[in-house]
């Protein structure tokens, strides 16, 4: 079992790797993903890339029994943790009634990423998508929150790149429709 991208230094383990063992090996990559993800947020966003990465790591580390076979599975879990953190952050912002200075950014055409209400709507739509098609929901997490490219997603999900591209197009359209329905108050 290899961690990919030369991260494992030749190490192999039949029982996988803990989050604690993998974190230092992929820290720079996770921080880069967090920086890119937070670039679409307001300039005065209170959550910083380092804090997002560390919070994701703490959530992964909390389950000491969790093992990861490779780098991609670890990044998949980290992407999911980052998504939950950003959604929790948006919920707190809505609860605090903060706002102002909002800059229009999009989740690849789905919805503004720096508005708490839209982040929550996307999170809720993603949960509904997971109920209908877990693979497509996982793909969105890996692509948007994990920053993986089509090739890496294809390997992680065990499908072809063509399938990833087709599923990504479907998932974006599905999320756009679901978020738009919420805006219009339609069911």
Describe the 3D structure:
It is built from 7 helices and no strands. The N terminus is likely disordered. The chain starts with 18 loop residues before the first helix and ends with a helix. Helix 1 crosses helix 3 and helix 3 crosses helix 4. By secondary structure, it is mainly alpha-helical. It has one domain. It is 64% helix and 0% strand.
Q: Please bin the fraction of helical residues.
A: 55-70%
Number of domains: 1
Coarse structural class? mainly alpha
Q: Choose one word for the global shape.
A: globular
Q: How large is the share of residues in beta strands?
A: under 5%
Q: Count every beta strand, where a strand is a DSSP E run of 2 or more residues.
A: 0
Which sequence of SSEs, written as H and E, runs from N to C?
A: HHHHHHH
End-to-end separation in angstroms reads 46 Å
- Radius of gyration, in Å, reads 17 Å
Average pLDDT reading = 75
Characterize the largest beta sheet: strand count, sense, and whether it forms a barrel: none
Poorly predicted regions are 1-12, 98-106, 109-113
* Number of helical elements: 7
